[in-house]
Amino acid sequence: MGNANVSNVTIRPEEADFFAKLARDWWNPRGPMASLHQVNPVRLAFVRDAIDAHWPDAAASAKPLAGRTALDIGCGAGLLCEPLARLGAAVTGVDAAADNVAAAAAHAEGVGLDIRYMAGEVAALDIGTFDLVTCVEVIEHVADKTAFLRDVAARLAPGALMVMSTPNRTAASRVLLVGAAEAVGYVPRGTHRWEDFVTPEELEEMLAEVGLTVVAKRGIAWRPGKGLHLSEDMGLNYILSARRV
Hints:
disordered N terminus, Rossmann fold, alpha/beta
């Protein structure tokens, strides 16, 4: 990262270092990343719906991404890459933290999945374009958000689909996602900086600036008895799909 051009560096080094320290425990569902294991099935439900809507001819298939390429930006240890591979995609995972990439590659090999993992900034890697680009819980850790989204958009092949999720910047998210979640250990202390959260309106405007239009959008909400689920309530977190205008 230190050798990249300044224009290509969007992930703050201290953010990458923070998550790198968690890499070895990333796949432990009861470890410090337990919250990701709980939200991952909810995200995947949205991703599958978005894939089926975007490529309806493959909606009935168990592998709707067969013959397609997918890129997960900020892949961590591969929690989203592996399900995408199981849906048939040729998957590339990119993360700014080399420790995360090493953990991801080791886990994929252990479960018999052929996934290409690369460490670095997505703008600085010669990896081409993809049919599906995912980027979950990343933009809130980025310094120059518009520059980052421009780099994300540049990875979309013609007719591609993009899926992104991030916390909303609301009073509720300040209390629950930052204060309470860190206080009780639901997420590691220091995971979130509330002032870096992006509202859906702000994100849609930034996506429009880089030539993308939002197709679908849902909240990721929580309530007793139901847990995390897709909802119309976007007060805490939301996930959206987008394509070129």
